[in-house]
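Lecture 7, part B: from sequences to assemblies.

Below are the input chains for today's worked example.
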Amino acid sequence: MTPTADAAPLAPRSVAMLAVAAVAGLTAFAWPLFARLDASSATTATFVFALVLPLVLAVVVAELTSDSLDVKGLAMLGVLAAVGAILRPLGAGSAGMEPIFFLMILGGRVFGPGFGFAQGAITLGASALLTGGVGAWLPYQMIAAGLLGLGAGLLPRRPTGGAEIAMLCGYGLVSAFAFGWLMDFAFWPFGIGPGTQFSFDPDAGPLANLHRFALYNLVTSMGWNLGRALTSIVLIVLLGPGLLHILRRASRRAAWASASRGRVVGPDASGLG
Amino acid sequence: MSARPPRPRQAHPWAWWGWALAVAGASSFGTNPLLSVLLGLAVTAVVVARRTDDPWARSVGAYFALAGIVLAIRVVFAAVAGAGVGSTVLFTLPHLEFPEWAAGIRLGGPVTAEPLAYTAYDSLRLGLMLLCLGAANALANPKRALKSVPGALYEASVAVVIALSVAPQLVESTQRIRRAQRLRGGAPRGWRAVSAVVLPVLADAVDRSLGLAAGMEARGFARTRVATRPSSAATIALLGAMLLATFGGFLLLAASGTQERAAAAACLVVGAAGVAVGLRAAGRRLRVTRYRPDPWTPRDTALVGGGVLAFGTAALLGSTLWPAAYATMHPSTDPLVWPQLHPAMALILVGALVPLAVTSAPTAAGRP
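Predicted structure of the full complex, as structure tokens:
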């Protein structure tokens, strides 16, 4: 098993695009820290970024899927997104049971950071289309899930076996909370409305607002974040070893084109016949 | 029989999105609850009259529920943890003070009408925006929308189309594997059953993706791109446009003066236009044909025009240029007065109801 052989190196172009997307995404999530709007128009801030983020996503996903991925990567992306889109409604609404994050973590781990970003973004996009859930929150979810997959691809390559599963579990715990905090923070002024003591206050400083957010989050979302983290960990422990094996086997079998670019490769050589 | 190609019965999916987003934008210009309720009724009427029997068309009920939940959460928070403004006390809740480390939050106490009315007005507006998104989800066919994405996103849309068409097959694959396990006897129980079912299904899905890739490759899928790499100047321009748009969004929120706001909006528009141009240039490297593309007809323009009429009227009424209309768009909650309607608001409603006039009801089968 060679975990490093399967992740295709990213072109510098893609790295630059991903970096810009990460900056744009984090700016969009952290907007309550720097916004100077009055309280009533604070809800429109979310919509400003809901219009900017799709542009950023379009550029990055176009770049990642057209130049960094070949046909097999694209088909793998589509199939993994389909699995995520099927799994997502299974746990919807029940205390943060979201059985899709473990797939993005494992996909990013095996196929690298660029694939992880595309997988996270496309899984949530396909799932929203399938269930009719397209809205202002979708670009945020796509960016956050993309960053989650990207981070999984950037974990150290060396650990294998039990150590690898333990590392992925740790990442599942951290990323579940990070995902929840990012999403809650961006939609905090929007969800609770202005004027309460838990509300976003544009006149207070960033630290005071962070304090208010921490209280609000502790009251409303801690259970969801914990549920999401535990779901990811349980699924990684249960399914991780088997699924990593399946994905790595597929990536070895799919290595035919990159090994022999420009030559015609028959079905026998790929083992697909 | 006829020489003319048959006119498509359903409107273009992006036209539905344009109409719905414009009406959602129109609702953002004011907090008048009467207008919000009337617009909500108009959007609901359009959805009920024009939706099909497809699965995505059933989602609008979930958006109604979501709007109700947002309204309920906001009103409860305003009542329990309100900041204590307003003079008309409705009733008094039990009182609870938190220590200083918890920011000195005060829960309960007298509940006043003014902040509750303000919260309810704002939440109705937000609920209307959610309803507009629900309408777009219910009325626009996502598969047809994916067919008309820009060329640069062609591969991504292929991945999404694969996902949408593979998802039902996975359910079938799960049933097949479970049946095989039952036939073999000794089906695993408890935690082991999860991995005993999920892993074969995933292995099946991965094998399917390799077969699909071989099929796509054999039919020349990856040969549709012109072999030239995009120039580094184009890359830098695209990166710059992305950064400019992000910076514009940042500045629009962080700026305080009118001039800074205008500069921020200019950054946003220039950056967005740059990204659009860059994506077009990237898409031109692709040579694919489209099967049965959806034409954009004058009716689709009329549909979007209705949304633009609603948006433009609301923007005019909600601006400070017209003080009388501004007052009706933002009714006062402190002192609390009964909200009034302005005659020009009828134009907003007409714009929201344009789809009923220009589109036709779906056929009995629910499919074009």
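Note for the exam: DSSP finds twelve helices and no strands in chain A. Keep this in mind when comparing with the next example.
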